[in-house]
Write a structure and sequence with these properties.
Aspartate Aminotransferase, domain 2, binds pyridoxal-5'-phosphate, 4-stranded antiparallel beta sheet, globular
């Protein structure tokens, strides 16, 4: 792909960093910076409230992002409605919202099924729900290829006594292995389960189709947009009557001291002043991704991932996590007899930025490897030269470790 010139941080960066940490946060193209900047420079007002021109303009720009998101996450004949798009502060917020609102009346007759490979954001809110309500929290394991074991998932679904919610990542950040998400969605539907897909890593990398799920969550800062903003797609009707997760201004119809009536979807779940600039920037980021072509991004990241995986496999003392499975967007590996943080520190000294440790996915890494790891992750701007720099820097680091 040829998009590096769209990123001032890549063209102007004085230190020449090879940024291989896009799974944590992707870089932001200039057009998104400009869009955010224009909001603050020209119409920096609150939304849904004022009737002056700046407030009107901010409201129109903010609301215009809902159909942009909807268009981006739909395929075929599905049409996402504006009322199905709730803006949040990110994936974590979106999952907490579902756990607290959709599952507000769940109890020990209900179950939530997550996978072994989840990010903490898709584990801890369900543990909290279990601890306060008695909901059963089940974990489905991965097979030897790093795919969710569909037989195990079906067993768990069969054993459910009342409501089931399957909450899994389409592309786990600790494996980089794209899951058979359509199959997971269809299987779960056969058992009338509700399906929540964590799209934090997948939405920036593959075409999504919300027709196979009920909830889809993702973050702006992983899809070339601003931090502190994200999306909850919620199928129409699922959250209309649930108790709001947060309450306050803008999510109400009327308030008096005796009682409050809540707003309709999606504003019912957007309490207080939203990240207006963030939402507007997210809209521009998604348009930028569409200009690049999501299929081109998928192909580029698959190419870079194959290249990186093969190169890493050839380095002595390096073991790649699930070495025989293809990856998309990130490779996780460990180095024999070396702490992951030491490796990352030595790479950093050579201007190669990677992530190390437990990657906010401690259970799978502790259970399967018993240690922290190093993760190199990519964006549509990542080049094979940057992977070569990683390998050279790694080989040099290993001489001192
Ligand atoms: C798969 C996955 N889920 C959830 C999250 C949490 O995202 P955020 O911190 O933007 O809420 C991440 C972040 O790394 C992730 O990779």
């Amino acid at each position: 792909m040829n998009c590096r010139s769209d990123f001032a941080i890549l063209t102007d960066s004085p230190d020449g960093t090879a940024y291989l940490d896009s799974a944590a946060t992707s870089l932001t193209p200039d057009c998104v910076l400009e869009k955010v900047n224009r909001y603050y420079r020209y119409y920096n007002a609150n939304i849904h409230r004022g009737i002056h021109n700046w407030a009107e303009k901010a409201t129109v720009e903010y609301e215009a992002v809902r159909p942009i998101v909807g268009d981006f996450i739909q395929m075929g004949t599905t049409t996402v409605k504006d009322c199905e798009i709730v803006f949040s502060s990110g994936t974590t917020h979106s999952i907490n919202l579902v756990a607290n609102s959709f599952c507000a009346d769940w109890d020990s007759d209900d179950q939530v099924i997550i996978s072994e490979a989840e990010h903490h954001a898709n584990i801890v809110p369900w543990q909290q729900l279990r601890d306060r309500s008695g909901v059963k929290l089940q974990v489905v394991f991965l097979d030897e290829k790093g795919q969710i074991d569909l037989g195990h998932l079906e067993d768990l679904l069969k054993r459910g006594t009342r409501r089931s919610l399957v909450a899994t990542s389409i592309l786990p950040n600790a494996t980089g292995i794209l899951q058979d998400w359509q199959q997971i969605g269809q299987l779960s539907k056969m058992y009338d389960a509700t399906v929540l897909f964590d799209g934090a890593q997948s939405v920036p990398r593959i075409q999504t189709d919300v027709s196979v799920c009920d909830f889809l969550v993702f973050s702006g800062h992983k899809i070339y947009g601003p931090t502190g903003v994200g999306v909850l797609y919620a199928r129409q009707g699922l959250l209309d009557d649930a108790p709001p997760y947060m309450s306050g201004g803008d999510m109400i119809k009327t308030v008096n001291f005796a009682e409050t009536t809540f707003n309709i979807m999606p504003w019912r779940y957007e309490a207080g002043t939203q990240n207006i600039a963030g939402v507007i920037g997210l809209g521009r980021a998604i348009q930028w991704v569409q200009e690049q072509g999501i299929d081109n991004i998928t192909a580029h990241e698959a190419m870079i991932s194959d290249y990186a995986q093969e190169a890493l496999k050839s380095v002595d003392r390096v073991s790649v996590f699930f070495p025989d499975s293809s990856k998309l967007g990130l490779i996780v590996f460990a180095v024999d007899n070396a702490q992951s943080s030491d490796v990352a520190t030595l790479l950093n000294a050579q201007q190669v930025a990677v992530r190390s440790g437990y990657l906010c996915a401690e259970p799978i890494l502790r259970n399967r490897l018993g240690r922290g790891v190093i993760r190199a992750s990519f964006g549509c701007y990542t080049t094979t030269e940057e992977i070569d720099r990683l390998i050279t820097a790694l080989q040099k680091s290993l001489q001192t470790l």
